[in-house]
Structure formats: C-alpha cells, structure tokens
Write a structure and sequence with these properties.
Mean pLDDT is about 85; it is low at about 5-10 and about 10-30. Strands 6-5-2-1-7 form a 5-stranded parallel beta sheet. A two-stranded antiparallel sheet has the order 3-4. By secondary structure, the chain is of the alpha/beta class. The chain has a single domain (about 35-150), classed as Hypothetical Protein Ychn, Chain: A, CATH 3.40.1260. The chain is globular, with a radius of gyration of 26 Å. It is built from 5 helices and 7 strands; from the N terminus they run H-E-H-E-E-E-H-E-H-E-H-E. It starts with a helix and ends with a strand. Helix content is about 35%, strand content about 20%. The longest helix is centred in the N-terminal third of the chain and has 18 residues, at about 1-20.
C-alpha cells in the first residue's frame, strides 16, 4: 500500500507540474507602420446612397484615428462620379461633400477605369483629387496587407 501511495504521489506531482501555466510569451513589438484601410465602394450611390455613405463615414473615422485610407470606387461605386452625382445625399448629407472632406484630410480616392468606361464616366467627371487606377495602383496596396471593407 505504501508503494501505491508513493506512485500516486509521483503521478499527481507530475500532472500538476505539467498543467502549470508557463509564463506568457511576449507579443512581438508592433511596427511604426501605420494601419491601412481600403474601402471598396461597389454600391450604386444613385440607387443606395446609404450604403455609399456608410463606407465614406468609415473612412472618415479611420482617418481621425490615424489609419491611412484608400477609397476604391469600383463596379457601380464609380456612379458617385457621374455628372449629376453632386446632388446625391442621404438624410441631408451630401456624399460629394463627405468625399471631398476625406480627400482634404489625406484620404486617397481611386476610380476603376474599366468601371468608369462601363458607366460612361470620363476622367474629366472625377472630383479634384480622385485618380484613375493604374495597373499597379491597387496591387501595390494589397501587398501591404491592408484591412478591406466593401460597401
């Protein structure tokens, strides 16, 4: 019986030692690289201005919190650049005004050239500060592993 108690004591001691938590390893230090956010604006602002405005508001909030942003107008999102789009509002908030504010605060806005063509939008229709995407515009940003939201 004495031997059984000794064996059980050894086993219990081994189990307790194995189950003890090890000190947490420290997380690697974050880099000084600022966070990046791409807002892929695909919704048609002429049909659903609320969706577009949600994406723009996220961009404004990101900028206020030190996150660099790019708004990528693509698919139907380029309709925000159509000739009569300067009147698009949701609950009395004009989407062009919000977009201009984002550009003024350092946000980048890029429009898809293929999507512009599909919606018959010319480069001359773009707001000041909005650029037409080049072949590598978005790829170079994607390589930096940003967070992407789609509206």
């Amino acid at each position: 019986m004495k031997i059984l108690v000794i064996i059980l004591t050894i086993l219990l001691g081994s189990t307790i030692t194995a189950c003890q938590q090890h000190p947490a390893t420290s997380m690697p230090a974050t880099t000084d690289t600022p966070s990046e956010l791409i807002i892929s604006l695909t919704s048609d602002a002429t049909v659903d201005p609320h969706s577009g405005l949600m994406g723009l508001h996220l961009g404004q909030n990101a900028l206020k919190n030190g996150i660099s942003i790019t708004i990528f107008l693509n698919v139907h999102g380029v309709t925000l650049m159509a000739a009569d789009a300067d009147t698009i509002s949701f609950r009395e908030e004009n989407l062009h005004s919000v977009l201009q504010s984002i550009i003024a605060d350092g946000g980048q806005v890029i429009a898809c050239p293929h999507c512009m063509e599909a919606h018959e939008i010319q480069p001359s229709d773009l707001l000041e500060g909005v650029t037409v995407a080049q072949d590598t515009s978005m790829i170079s940003q994607i390589k930096r592993n940003p967070t992407v939201f789609t509206y």
